[in-house]
Design brief:
This protein is α/β, with parallel strands linked by helices and about 425 residues long. Helix content is about 35%, strand content about 10%. It has twelve helices and 14 strands. It has a seven-stranded mixed beta sheet with strand order 2-8-7-6-5-3-4, with helices on both faces. The chain has a three-stranded antiparallel beta sheet with strand order 11-12-14, covered by helices on one side. Strand 5, helix 6 and strand 6 form a beta-alpha-beta unit. The radius of gyration is 21 Å and the shape is globular.
Length: about 425
């Protein structure tokens, strides 16, 4: 089986597996226990906290261990529901992960606004700038990279706008972390991530939050994490997560070379110097530290773009979502050619030995169209044609070519009916 669903979850890296096994053997104690065995476990996760803080660019006291991004995201909305005045609104992008959208509607049913996006799937910063001049939300939430389309969001620019008006900014970085450099993420008030999105184990993640000021805990009952998240810390999971993150960071650092702001992360489909999409923003700032793309990233981008060119050329009617915008190097979201909707692409690809997705794994069980695709202005019928292919660092060129051949075969079969 060739796996093209890494945005849903990733196989555990050997480094992460070994770190987990070592931790299970060496750190058997509860980090909150007063004896030496407990203290050893506490020291281990404290050192891991320091390492993650260095990766994000924040203080170690800002880091809270959680069970994953869903818990982290719910914690943020729970906190602001309790901390904000009863009249305060929260603004979240219309393409946030389902757990952010759902928790926003739960805690702020009549006090939230959805930040619109363009047809290319990019948050409209003009809207944010104009609306912020007239009203101050209690929180702005815009993800770093979309899980369904792979389109990179202008989180740095959004952060600057929020800082200008002293509005807390929350960035779900689950899809960004481990795929692109984390420089600057620590400047956000809140940042979430999940280990299983970058080669770590399932069931562990993090929340970066302000060290100063109380965070209202979602989980109560213990003093762990300075009272911000009750429950015994997952020592083995935390150490395994850091091993995976550092392995990915080392890969991104390999053979780093200065490059343009879009090369290695965006799309080769847009001509240099062409105007940006609606909103007038520049996706990635010309920051010398950020604009270092490794050979590994450039190689992955070239494979993805070659696959895209062949899809458009060989499958008439196919359309790549967000093609003109910078996207994650691993993600292709495509509207497949019109066909009988009862003949499911995913099922047919699965029978041919390929694992792909229709979108977010957290919403794929629903019958209604993807809220992300709908927010971009696609019709319900167009939404039923969307497939997502998300590769991993270990995905080979031959895997992309084999996937292309499988798509051709499925399309030929559908065209006969």
């Amino acid at each position: 089986m060739i796996y093209f669903d890494h945005n849903a979850t990733t196989p555990m890296l050997p480094e992460a597996r070994q770190a987990w096994l070592d931790a299970v053997e060496n750190y058997i104690g509860n980090p909150s226990s007063p004896h030496r065995i407990g203290s050893r476990a506490d020291v281990a996760i404290t050192e891991a906290r320091d390492r993650l803080a260095q990766h994000l660019g924040c203080d170690a006291l800002d880091v809270v261990w959680t069970s994953g991004a869903t818990e982290s995201n719910n914690t943020v909305l729970h906190h602001f529901a309790r901390a904000l005045p009863s009249s305060a609104e929260v603004w979240v992008s219309a393409i946030e992960h389902p757990c952010v959208i759902a928790s926003t509607k739960q805690y702020f049913p009549k006090r939230h606004r959805l930040i619109p996006v363009t047809r290319e799937g990019v948050v409209d910063l003009n809207w944010l700038t104009e609306e912020m001049a007239h009203a101050r939300p209690g929180l702005v939430a815009i993800m770093a990279a979309n899980n369904e389309t792979g389109v990179l969001q202008p989180w740095r620019e959004a952060l600057a706008i929020c800082q200008q008006w002293n509005v807390p900014y929350f960035c779900d970085a689950a899809q960004w972390t481990g795929k692109l450099p984390a420089d600057g993420l620590g400047e956000c008030a809140f940042v979430s991530g999940a280990a299983h999105k970058f080669g770590g184990p399932k069931g562990v993640g993090f929340l970066k939050c302000p060290a100063k000021g109380r965070v209202e805990p979602l989980l109560r009952g213990g003093p762990q994490e300075d009272g911000r998240r009750a429950g015994t810390e997952n020592v083995a999971g935390i150490l395994s997560m850091l091993a995976a993150l550092e392995a990915r960071k080392n890969l991104m650092r390999a053979a780093e070379q200065p490059t343009s702001t879009r090369e290695g992360i965006g799309s080769s489909s847009r001509a240099a110097g062409s105007p940006p999409g609606k909103g007038g923003w520049v996706s990635i700032p010309a920051d010398p530290q950020f604009c270092l793309a490794s050979d590994a990233i450039r190689l992955q981008v070239s494979r993805r773009d070659a696959f895209i060119e062949r899809i458009i050329e060989e499958l008439p009617g196919a359309e790549v979502v967000g093609l003109s915008q910078p996207r994650l190097w691993n993600t292709v979201s495509a509207l497949m050619p019109n066909a009988d909707c009862q003949q499911r692409w995913v099922v047919k690809l699965d029978k041919l030995g390929f694992a792909a997705s229709t979108g977010s794994a957290c919403s794929s069980g629903k019958e209604e169209p993807s809220h992300v695709i709908a927010a971009m202005g696609f019709s319900p019928h167009e939404a039923t044609r969307v497939l997502r292919f998300s590769a991993g660092w270990e995905t080979a060129e031959d895997d992309w070519l084999a996937l292309l051949e499988a798509l051709r075969k499925v399309h030929r079969g559908m065209s006969k009916h």
